[in-house]
Write a structure and sequence with these properties.
Blueprint (H helix, E strand, L loop, with lengths): L22 E2 L4 E3 L2 E3 L2 E2 L9 H10 L5 H17 L6 E5 L5 H9 L4 E6 L2 H10 L5 E3 L12 E7 L8 H11 E12 L7 H5 L8 H11 L2 E8 L4 H14 L5 H16 L2 H14 L9 E7 L3
Parallel strand pairs: 4-7, 5-6, 5-8, 6-7, 8-9
Antiparallel strand pairs: 1-2, 2-3, 9-11, 10-11
Length: 301
Amino acid sequence: MPEQSINIDFPWPTPSGLKGKPVWNGRGFHVDGRSFPVLSFEVGAAGWTDDLTTFHEHTAGDSHFIDMASRRHAVSQVTSHASQGLPVILDIGCSSGFLLEDLRTAFPDALIMGADVVLRPLLNLAKRSPAIPLLHFDLTSCPLPTNSIDVAVLLNVLEHIEDDTLAVKQLFRILKPGGIAIVEVPAGPELFDIYDELLMHFRRYKMSTLSHMFLQTGFSVLKRSHLGFFIYPGFFAVKKMRRKKRADISEEEIAVLVSQSINQTGRNPFFHLLMEMELMLGKLVSYPFGIRCLLTCIKPK
């Protein structure tokens, strides 16, 4: 992957225990005479773990139809709403870096950064893609300066944060006036099941609840829709079946069941085609329901 243009004036925050101003040298951070592949800050308890990252890589990988559609939607929203010039784009919850790669391909002249609340995946990602600045922090105590980010993308992040309202307030703070937030979360509180438990979700969302939280924080909504509209009936049936089974299966059986489900459907060419059609039509319409809520917001100027 080619080197990205470096915004040397970005105000990188200084982790506790260090004194100097971090400098990004194109392959890592340099501060206090030391080099760091990841700029790491203190984090609290998180609704995600190293093991869940490994589980996701081994099951869904980078080619599961719903995740591929999710990333394509995110990139299209950045294309549609980001300001001209060289924006600073932050992928919060970047995990294995699949979206980061898509963003760098689509916006080679932008400063693309990744952040996550777990460190090990970031260290592994730094070895594979050393030219991407990576930060380890907790969004509810985000160390980034106020008004420093043009675009923030959060794909399936807020459901892992217990105090999601505080996380959205921090998101609003770090975005520049006119900055864009592109958010995706699992839809349907009534469908919370063993899959959500395994992935350490605190909740699933109603679109009205999600939109209200962002509006109350000060955002204006640019677009709201859903992902997985056409496959929702089958998804709904499977979710209801899992909820009935919950009392009869162990934690180990849950992991096996979820893994089998992801593997069986993830690379199905029919589902890939269906999502292609959904994304195309989604440019013209907003879907009233689906597997995931999609929200694009702007911080007013």
